[in-house]
Design goal:
By secondary structure, the chain is an alpha/beta fold. The chain has eight helices and twelve strands. The chain has two domains: about 120 residues, Response regulator (Rossmann fold); about 90 residues, Orthogonal Bundle (Arc Repressor Mutant, subunit A). The strands form three sheets. Strands 2-1-3-4-5 form a five-stranded parallel sheet, with helices on both faces.
Amino acid sequence: MSKRILVVDDEPDVLELVRLSLDREGFTMETAETGSEALEKIARRIPDLVVLDLMLPDMSGTQVCGLLRSQAETADLPVVMLTARSEEADRVVGFELGADDYVTKPFSPRELGLRVKAVLRRSDGSHGSEKQILEAGVLVLDLDRHRCTVEAVEVELTPKEFNLLASLMGRRGRVQSREQLLDECWGSDIMVTLRTVDTHMKRLREKLGTAGDYIDTVRGVGYRFVD
């Protein structure tokens, strides 16, 4: 069965370009012209991925993304955002909220199709070959169920925070640079700064409480997980 992609944009020309890219890759396309319409359609039936314009008539794409990430049912829903090249600050905010990739306008149908496929691969294959439950002291990370607990109490993590923790725990004791973490959790061609990793790591430590001490900062290099 082909993957269902919900495209949220109010510009007919953009929708036609997206249709060409998705048809080429064998995806099924659905559309919404506003953020509220998109949220209603997602509530009725969750798609496999959302292509989300940053500028919508009723709310911003970052608001829609934030609402999706705040609900358990859609916290892991892959999101590719569409943006103009001048909106770098909004791109950073989007990644902080959990967007998986950005495509800048104008774009080619081929580029968008390839990026959508790459995000779906990362989503479908994340940690597929690794041990599915990672444990360290009071901290347990269940990769299959996407659950994190500290002292048997569940900790709510964003998808990026969860992936960062899984990457560190999967290579415990080994230092990972900020560049490596960006490449693994955001993708090698994502335009975000190294500071994004530091911001996510700070929030992750705060959420983990006492278990946050397992994440060690290696000054000038990156981070490592230590028991």
